[in-house]
Every structure is written in structure tokens, then in C-alpha cells.
Specification:
The protein is an alpha/beta fold and 333 residues long. 31% of the residues lie in helices and 15% in strands. It contains nine helices and eleven strands. A seven-stranded parallel beta sheet has the order 3-2-1-4-5-6-10, sandwiched between helices. Strands 7-9 form a two-stranded parallel sheet. Helix 5 packs across helix 9 and helix 7 crosses helix 9. The longest helix is centred in the middle third of the chain and has 17 residues. The radius of gyration is 20 Å and the shape is globular.
């Protein structure tokens, strides 16, 4: 019987991950601050993961085959994890994010896809999705040995989130104290009200009401994954031997036009757009730069992803109906 620790795991896909592990026969320990109950048959350890002394004391003499960290956002948290779990786990899985590739928060990495200025004349309609060659592979951002100066003071929320994840990856993967995999997760959708971000609901509400969607005049596609699929992927990763970064996304990137069109089809309303220039705020999945992901590494390693069009219609229906979805978990963005 595998002994697995999940840090976080109280809601959305994290909760479903805990249930998958338990139902597969693992002995599961969930560590969180106690703000939500854990599923039946799971050990609950209440501790602040930011406090190394408290976390160490709460875990006592427990050891684990695998630790899956759902709520690791900063290099300081990663340093605590190194200190507490060194000699205590045989494998560490960090749930990271595709936002580490976002050129808006790290433009020097991908300057060719982050327009600093655009021509005066824009196309009248949103363009087709760019070629697959623009998809981001793991090797374009190697966290090993990357400086960890901390998130700059005064950084906006998006930059703080993305840079915190980049630096946390670096802390774990530079001179690792245990074998570590970093899962760079696409935008997670599905589950109706269980999706606490409200991003798909934004489209469902506006399009069904006949309200315009704010979209960039030159919009790029992004990557998505279903809440069940990412839980399955993390479950699979826990039992796999590979290390380093890996992208997790369904096949098929969508831009704001494609997403809105699908929502419109399900709602019986043709979507309307209000266009904004590059650099301006828009709806949640409208992007003026490219950082959709390539999932080829995970596929070569043996995981089989679905296509976004296989599950997105049902996810949209759940959002349109305000469906509660299923009681699934995870505290990931």
C-alpha cells in the first residue's frame, strides 16, 4: 500500500485527486489549515505549511512514498518543503501552472510573442489560431539554477503568481533533495459551481444574456484541461518515475473566438465581441500573447490526453445551467 501525502486538496480537482488515491488503495494523508473537511477514509493533519516548525511537529514521524503539493506558490514555501520532507519522502510532485510561460510576466523569455507595439489597423475579426509551432515545450523554461530573489515588491497579482511559481520550481529542482516532478497545469475547467474561479461562468453568463465579450483584436489561443483529467494526470504522475517539468493539457488549444463560439452554440446565442487593443484588460481567456502548451513530453511518457472538444461542451452546459457539478477538489488556480 502506497503512503501518499497531499498538501491542500480540499476543493475542486485536488479533492477529486484525494478520492482517486484513496479509492486506488493508497493510504492518504491530507495536510491543510483545517478550513474544510477531508473525504472519509483519509487522515487529516492540520498545519500551516508556511511554518516549518509547526509542519514538522504536526507530521511527527510520518514518512511518505509520494508528496503531492497542490498549494505551493512561493520560493519560501518550497524552501520549507525541502527542509521538512528531506528524508521523509521518496518523491515530490508540485502542481505548477502554465502561467510560468506567460511573456507578459516574463517577456525576456519569449519576446517574439509579446508585442510591444501593434500597427494602427487591426483585423475586423479575430484571427485563426496560430500554428502548433508556437506551443510551449518544457525546455523553453529551465528552472534549474535560476536565481531566486523573491517576488519583486509591488508586483501585480499575475506577475506575483507566475514568478512565485517559477521560483518555487527552481528551489525544488536545483540540487534536489528528493526526486521531483513539476506539473505545469493548463487552465482547469468543468464542474459547474465547483469551479470556484468563475472564468467559464463569465462567458456563459455574458453570452447567454446577449452581452459583449471583451476580446483582444489580435488574440492567441490558450490551453485547457478538464478537472477530472488533471486529477487523473496527478494520480498518474504520483506513480511515475520521471522528474522535472511536464506540461499537462488536453489536445487542442482554443482562442477567445473559439471558446465563445462553443458557448454560443450551447446557449443558442451568437456571441458578440467588444474589441480592445493589445495590453488592455479583456475577458479571462483572451490573450494578446502566445503561451499555449505542448503536451508531447507527457504523451511520450505514457499519459493519454483527451481533446478539449470532447469535454468542453458538457463543461459549458454545466456553467450555463449553474450546475453544482460533482463534489471535486483542489486549491489550484
Amino acid at each position: 500500500m502506497r503512503n501518499i501525502c497531499v498538501i491542500g486538496g480540499s476543493r475542486y480537482f485536488g479533492r477529486h485527486l484525494v478520492e482517486l488515491l484513496r479509492d486506488a488503495g493508497a493510504r492518504v494523508t491530507v495536510v491543510n489549515r483545517g478550513s474544510a473537511p477531508v473525504p472519509e477514509g483519509v487522515t487529516h493533519v492540520v498545519a500551516d505549511r508556511d511554518d516549518e516548525r509547526q509542519l514538522r511537529a504536526a507530521l511527527g514521524s510520518r514518512t511518505f512514498d509520494v508528496v503531492i503539493d497542490q498549494v505551493l506558490y512561493t520560493p519560501a514555501q518550497a524552501a520549507v518543503a525541502r527542509g521538512v520532507f528531506a528524508g521523509r519522502t521518496g518523491r515530490y510532485v508540485m502542481t505548477s501552472t502554465m502561467e510560468v510561460y506567460d511573456p507578459a510576466t516574463f517577456p525576456e523569455t519569449f519576446p517574439e510573442t509579446f508585442p510591444q507595439s501593434l500597427p494602427a489597423a487591426f483585423p475586423a475579426a479575430l484571427p485563426a489560431a496560430p500554428a502548433a509551432g508556437l506551443l510551449r515545450t518544457e525546455d523553453v523554461l529551465d528552472p534549474v539554477g535560476r536565481p531566486v530573489p523573491g517576488v519583486p515588491a509591488g508586483a501585480d497579482e499575475a506577475t506575483a503568481y507566475a514568478e512565485g511559481k517559477r521560483q518555487a520550481e527552481s528551489v525544488l529542482l536545483t540540487d534536489p533533495l528528493f526526486p521531483t516532478a513539476v506539473v505545469r497545469t493548463a487552465h482547469v475547467l468543468g464542474g459547474g459551481r465547483a469551479d470556484f474561479t468563475g472564468r467559464l461562468a463569465h462567458y456563459a453568463d455574458r453570452i447567454s444574456a446577449g452581452l459583449p465579450v471583451l476580446a483582444h483584436r489580435s488574440a492567441y489561443p490558450t490551453s485547457f484541461i478538464h478537472h477530472r483529467e488533471i486529477a487523473d494526470f496527478l494520480h498518474w504522475t504520483a506513480g511515475s518515475p520521471f522528474t522535472g517539468p511536464v506540461n499537462a493539457c488536453s489536445h487542442g488549444a482554443l482562442d477567445v473566438a473559439g471558446l465563445s463560439g462553443l458557448v454560443g452554440d450551447r446557449a443558442g446565442r451568437r456571441p458578440r465581441f467588444s474589441y480592445v487593443d493589445s495590453g488592455s484588460a479583456a475577458s479571462p481567456f483572451s490573450f494578446d500573447r502566445s503561451y499555449a502548451m505542448d503536451n508531447a513530453r507527457a504523451t511520450r511518457l505514457g499519459f493519454t490526453f483527451g481533446h478539449v472538444t470532447d469535454w468542453l461542451p458538457q463543461a459549458v452546459d454545466e456553467a450555463l445551467g449553474g450546475a453544482a457539478g460533482e463534489s471535486l477538489g483542489g486549491g489550484h488556480r
